[in-house]
Structure formats: C-alpha cells, structure tokens
## 1
Amino acid sequence: MRKAIICGILGLAALTAFAQNEPRTLRKSANVGDTVAYRFDLKVTTPGKTLAYAGKLTQTVLRIEADNSLVIESAAEGAVGGNAAPKSVSTAVLLPNGVVKELLGDDVTVDDYRVSFMGMFQAPPAPVGPSDFWVFESRPNPVTGARAVRVVYNVEAAESFSGYDTFRIKVSMSETSGANPATADGTIHVDVKTGWIVKSQMIWRNAPAGPNGETIDATVSLTREG
C-alpha cells in the first residue's frame, strides 16, 4: 500500500496575487538529473482504520525518452504511526503532458496504476489562465488494469506561493469504470514556469488499499521543499 501511495503522490506560506496572469502551458520542464523534494503527509480518515504516514519524497528525473516522456524515480522515507518505515522507491514514465504512461518494476500492481491516476497532474491541451478549465478522460487499460477516469481542472487564481509563481487549481477526479469507484478532490498549486507541483492538498475516497478490494478514505498533502 505504501508504494501505491507514493505512486499517487507524483505532490503553507502567505498567498498574494501576482501580476503574471497570461495563459501558461503548465507542461513539466526538466533535465536529466533534476531533483525535487517534498514533505508528504497521509492520514486515513476511514472509520475503524488508522494510518498516519509522513516523511520526505524525492523525485529525480532519470532520463528523457525519444517521445519526450520523463522517467521519474520517487523515493520516500518516513514513518508510519511514529515508527520508521522502510524506504520505498518507485519509477514512473510520464507522457509530456503528465499522464502516466507506465509504471516500472517487477512488483507493480493494478492498485499502483489506479492510485497513480488519482495523484497525477495532466497539463492542459492549450495554455490556460485564471478562470479557465479543462477535462482529462481516459479509457480502461486492459494491459495495466487502470480504470477509466475523468478529471476536471479549474484554474482558480494566480498566486505567489512559497517563493513560486503558481496557479491555484481545483481538481476533481473520479473513476468512471469498475465497482466502488475511487475519487480524489482538492487543490494544487503548480509552478507556472516549470509545471512542477508546489503544493497539493487532496481528499481521497475509496482509494485501493489491499489485494482483496480493501479501500481507504484519506487526506493527502504534499509541499515542496526549497
């Protein structure tokens, strides 16, 4: 489950409006070797289930594919319930617009793909500014087991956040195939210059959490360091 959480985190200072409201592509810009670090916090809110997982997530660009997809390694170190947890490492291939193309590794599961779609940010098909919105939709993937999803993004405002010029974006994601669909709703701040997430605060419902169809509800936050 911990690895699936990290796949879904692919993740507050005073907020003040900044003047640069012109449309932005919000596509992630990166070079091989670039590293971004975050603090993460996951708290289960499902009655009868307890889990608090917090720590540091480091994402490193391992390589850039011929189609400009980014191969990104995510390494998480933290504690579960106050006890140190083993380091968790996962690798994802992201299309240029941020959509999860593939998860690499011998132990990747359907749950990993489902949670990765709960946490990904898909850049808009055209530049956007405040008050703009766009929709991402996918079909079920018979190879990976990923379900069909629909994600609506709404740019609420342009804000300066922790030293970054960002767009504050409302996100509403839901699975549109399969039983007991998972949802993820919340707000993210995206660096308008680089497309990297600066802050994410999401509420998960029915997130896959076990081999027998177990699910959890949780709050998940991610804050960039430095």
## 2
Amino acid sequence: MNILVVNDDGVDAVGIHKLALALKKYGNVVVCAPDTGRSAASHSIVIQGSLTFKYVGDQDHIEWYKTSGMPADCVRMAIKLTGLDFDVVFSGVNDGLNLGTDIIYSGTVSAAREAHIQGIPAVAISTDYGAFSIVDHELESLLELIFEKRLYSRDYVLNINFPEGKFAKSFGYRFCRQGIKIFNTGFKEIENEAYLNDESIITYDENQDTDVYLASKGYITLVPLQVEQTKLDSLEELKKKQ
C-alpha cells in the first residue's frame, strides 16, 4: 500500500512527523508538505508562477518532499511527480481543530479533499492547539480503527478531530455530522490603513449530533464530507420557477 501524507502546517511540523511514523506499519509512506506553514489556505492552488518540489531526504525509511505550493498543491504534485499510485492520502495531524465550519478555511481538510477529487480515498486528522499528548496516546488505536474497518473511501472525505485539549484522553469515537462554528472577528488598526485580527467571539453549535458539540464533550469525531454542495431541495424549488 502506498500512503501519501500531507499537511498545511509545513514540513517541519510536529503533527506530520507523528502521523507519518505511525503509518509506516500499514505501507510505503511518502510525505509531501509545504515548505512553511499554510494554515487557513483553504483549497487555494498556485496557478501563476513556478512551484518548487524538492526531495528532502529519507527519514526512517520515509521519503520526504517539500513544495512552495499550497496544501492542495502537495497532493497534486506528489501524484504527478513521485511516480507512485497512492492508495490513500492522510492529511495532518493538524495543530488546531477543524470542526464544523472550520473546514471551509482549513488547508488540512482541503488537501484531503483534493485527493478525493483526484479519486484517492482521503482522511484529515486534527487536534486542538498544542494538544499532542492525546495524539501520542491515541493515534495508533485510531489508525487501527481506520484500517481494520476500512473507514477511508472514494465516496467521501473522512474528517477526524481529537477532542478539545481540556481532555487528557477521549471517551471513544463518534460518527456524526458537521456542525456550525461561527467566528465574529474584530480588527485592530496598528498603523494607518493596516490592521491585525483582534479577539474573535466564537459561536459554537449546541446540537448534540455534531462534531463541534461532541468534541467539546471529549469524543473523537469522524465526519464524512462530500465535494458536491448543491442543495437539492432548493434546486427542485427553483426549477419550478423556470
């Protein structure tokens, strides 16, 4: 099995090293990551100018590459330039949760989505900021679950989040739907016409069958996502107005 590992935190990020090493038991692992952090890059790709794609070296029998591109570019370039046919793509482990509407901004989830678009099963994995102790204790069992039950599929992107960092360990896992998480961000002027993001007020989904709610209660959440975004009932209503 050929396994591609990507991320949006960059080639030197802690999470991608933990994930790549943990995946070695399941096949031939290749890493392709941005040369620096690309958090919140969403599904952007570089279409103007050149892109670098450099072989970093072999570490622990894993081939490492880095690119000047975006997370989605990591997938696109690795597929074309390594000469390998990948059976599954893993993105992460992201340093920061990707729950609910976080996935709209997430480069981690978007890299997995790009693999799905390319016809390759994909899994995105995230943890709360700095909460890698729970990853150290539970990543191996999570991967066993994924491979034993073959939870990856060409039919969806599997978005997985460890629980919020206030928990030392999870209470298990839950399959659930994507929730809503709204950022109301302020902006602080630092000089004439230049601003920084100021404190955000975040509204969290309280529906008990969502990833946002269940992660706040200590569960590992698993959400199958799709690329197709057409609201079918609204489409049928609009057709009646033709």
